[in-house]
Amino acid sequence: MMNRNTSQPILSLQGVCKNFGGVKAVSNVSADVAYGERRLFIGTNGAGKTTLFNLIAGDLPVSSGKIILFGQDVTKMPVAKRVKLGMRRTYQTSELFNALTVRQNFYLALLGDGKVWNHLSMFKNHRLDRDKNKKIEEQARAVGIYEKLDEQVDSLSHGERRQVEFGLAIITKPKLLLLDEPAAGLSEEEKQVMLKLIKSLDRKVTVVMIEHNIEMAFEIADYVTVMYDGEIFAEGTKDEIKSNEEVQRIYLGGAI
After folding, report:
1. Cα dist. 42→48, 125, 139, 208 in Å?
2. Residue 7 burial by CB count (10 A; 0-12/13-18/19+): exposed, middle or buried?
3. Are 225 and 217 within 8 A, CB to CB?
4. Which of 47, 97, 98, 174 might form a disulfide with 227, Cβ 3.0–4.6 angstroms?
């Protein structure tokens, strides 16, 4: 368990709101995430979790409030600049280039951290880039996908695609990793692979995660935020959340 009061938070949400017309998808959310923390957001469908992730990542603009990332106000900062600061994310459904090989997907992830316009022949010459290929092969081994490096992504199983997506998210060594339902659609065996990958991350990487698989998520989380109807309903350690009768009533249903 982390000491959550030892440093400035890596992520601070200050009264964050998001309205879609008259609907308040996220309402006055304030929360601090410490460096190295594993923070879990849970809640029923429609609680506002993914919308909040989209606000943190910059995929959606906030209606009001502030988002402080790495000590900087990023509330109006575009996604690309947040990524350059050290943020990465995954999505509920894998966002990959299906017509390319796994290696090419990794290569693109590395180029995205630099000047892509200087690599117009990247697919013709990508195998000649020894430094990048060394990183790619090391990362592919780390996420258990090395044997599939030169296969086309659309030939992979769902679990393998998740492993690739996870590898893409961490190959540039992010400081903050947002995981949106990493176990979604995985078999029990595949969930164990994903659990092992997340738990293997260095504590230099802060993890903020949405996950409906409570058993798996509670193996990872240091601190849990429960959302309900767009607002924070409860926060606490895993034990505090497990013993919270109101959380049990509205969400957990005795599942843990």
Report:
1. 10, 44, 29, 11
2. exposed
3. no
4. 47
**CATH numbers and ranges of domains, the chain:** 1-86+175-256 (3.40.50.300), 94-173 (no CATH)
- DSSP H helices in 77-210: 79-85, 102-111, 122-125, 130-142, 158-170, 188-199
In the sheet that holds 11-20, the strands lie side by side as: 23-33, 11-20, 64-69, 72-73
Helix (H, G, I), strand (E, B) or coil at 190: helix
Contacts 24+ apart (CB under 8 A), 129-138: 132/107, 133/103, 133/107, 135/110, 135/171, 136/103, 136/106, 136/107, 136/110, 136/171
Amino acid 123: pLDDT:
54
Q: pLDDT tens across 176-218, in order? A: 999 999 999 999 999 999 999 999 999 999 999 999 888 899 9
CA torsion 34-114-126-134 (nearest 10°) is -40
* Distance (Å, whole) CA 103 – CA 108: 9
- Note the pTM of the prediction, 2 decimals: 0.88
Encode pLDDT of 119-145 as tens digits.
445 555 666 678 889 999 999 999 999
DSSP string for residues in 46-79: TSSHHHHHHHHHTSS--SEEEEEETTEE-TT--H
Residues 193, 173: Cα–Cα separation, whole Å: 20
